[in-house]
Design goal:
- By secondary structure, the protein is mainly alpha-helical.
- It has three helices and two strands.
- It has a two-stranded parallel ribbon with strand order 1-2.
- It is rod-shaped, with a radius of gyration of 35 Å.
Length: 105
């Protein structure tokens, strides 16, 4: 391994050993500029990525729930729009000052 590195002028060497049993001696990972990864390392990366995606999915679900609530509030408010429009129109058509007195009640 050291000889191979000399031929590479000590550039970094990444080795991935996915064989079971292992094909590359674990001691190779202790050589300077050699990075040895095996199937267990890859599984750790996969597990970490899954956990990260799971956390992001939970955040997305919270955002969706908030947006649904906001939409429902907006949508339900649409029911009062015709009443508000009718009141505004009635006020515009009424004589000036007739609405200045408090409502009877």
């Amino acid at each position: 391994m050291a000889e191979a590195l000399r031929g590479r002028r000590n550039r970094l060497l990444f080795l991935i050993d996915i064989a079971v049993p292992r094909d590359i001696d674990p001691q190779a990972g202790e050589i300077d500029n050699v990075f040895l990864y095996n199937i267990d390392h890859l599984q750790e990366v996969v597990d970490a990525n899954k956990e990260g995606r799971r956390n992001e999915a939970l955040k997305a679900e919270e955002i969706i729930a908030e947006e649904i609530a906001a939409f429902e509030q907006w949508f339900n408010a649409l029911e009062v729009v015709p009443t508000i429009v009718a009141l505004r129109e009635k006020w515009r058509r009424s004589p000036k000052g007739s609405w200045s007195d408090p409502l009877p009640g």
